[in-house]
Description:
Blueprint: H1 23-36, H2 50-54
Amino acid sequence: MPRGTSARSLLPRNRPGxxxxxxxxxxxxxxxxxxxxxxxxxxxATDGPPTTIYN
Length: 55
């Protein structure tokens, strides 16, 4: 590393991957599926995508 250069300037600035979903929505979706007994993909759309709730 060149002298006078901070390590922070060499690191990527943005975070890789998808944006985070609100944890309350995900937990609400998980609880809905567990209480009602429906399939993961049949959960309400307001709780986020089925893959987010399942994973």
